[in-house]
Amino acid sequence: MGERATGGTASTRTIVVAAENLREVTTDLFARAGMSAEDAAFMGACLVDADLRGVHSHGTRYATMYVRALRGGDLNPRPEIRPVNEKGATVLLDADRGVGHLVGRHAMELAIARAREFGTSTVAVRNSTHCGAMAFFTQMAADAGCIGFAATNAGVRMVPYGGADPVVALNPLSWAAPTDRGWAVDLDMATSVAAGSKLQLAKERGERIPFGWALDEEGNPTDDPDAGMRGVMLPLGGAKGYGLAVCLDILTGVLSGGRFGAGLGAPGTAQHFQAIDIEPFIPLSEFKARMGQLIDQLKASRPAPDSAGVFLPGEIEHNLKEQRLGGGIPMTGVVIDDINALARELGSGEQVVAVA
């Protein structure tokens, strides 16, 4: 396959691939799983965007799992995303078991449109599914001249502060605002010390995880991703991460009438999307200029020893995307192998190949 590898076993080797090639093959997989051409193209773009930004934990490594779930009937390839309740700036959606990325796009587009009318908007979602990197949706809001917020409830893998049983979900959040630079300030974080999928990613790469991410089944700190996946994840900042996870479960699950807690409520995943139109407060140009002043002040800080300097949330990911659009995306070999194997299984002539 002409691979450009950086060592490791056959499965953990790194292959550099072109973003467009990866997007085309991924898009074809979703089309063959029953999605419309438009939705399949969006899924390809959304997952590859995560890889471009260095968020491989939520990128195309999920493509084969989603496609098999679509073909097996666990996900709906053509959902009827419908409003259950709506009043002014607020909407509750039923996602009809659609792939969460499509649902998130629909919900944030609706939030942005309502924010244009009312100044701000909140869209709650129930009966949804895994939606990948939340930053994609808040970036949509920032690109539209809004401040964006998004959250989802996730796998129940975390212990409550002071407890020993995994009854708290790893509920992530994202928050974004436009700037006068080429990138938005875009925070995307789990409420656990690390996202649960980062353990899976470490396993794929044959890497250990830092102590402090997870405990094994006996409650001992571990650097083994397998042991961590069988055990529990730890909350970010102790009691603070636990408290934030519970608050996000209220916003996503309790408020929407969807799933919440450890198996409470309706099945599926629950989500929460908000947009705040900036113009009713101050002109967008003034907001961006003020954001620029804030960025300049933060980046003027003297660097700490051995530090590369100060970066804003989303800045490193933006820089990586710019580099990888031209130089290719380093991908774990097992991910590319799985994508290519599924493409052959579905009768596709498309394959992901290494760049020269």
UniProtKB/TrEMBL annotation:
Record GO terms (molecular function): L-malate dehydrogenase (NAD+) activity
SUPFAM superfamilies referenced in this protein's UniProt entry, alphabetically: L-sulfolactate dehydrogenase-like (SSF89733)
InterPro entries per the UniProt record, alphabetical: Mal/L-sulf/L-lact_DH-like_ah, Mal/L-sulf/L-lact_DH-like_NADP, Mal/L-sulfo/L-lacto_DH-like_sf, Malate/L-lactate_DH-like
Residues of the signal peptide: none
Gene3D superfamilies listed in its UniProt record: 1.10.1530.10, Hypothetical oxidoreductase yiak, domain 2
Pfam families in the record: Ldh_2
Protein EC: 1.1.1.37
Lineage top rank: taxon: Bacteria
Record's keyword terms, sorted: Oxidoreductase
Family: Belongs to the LDH2/MDH2 oxidoreductase family.
Full protein name: Malate dehydrogenase
Organism: uncultured Thermomicrobiales bacterium
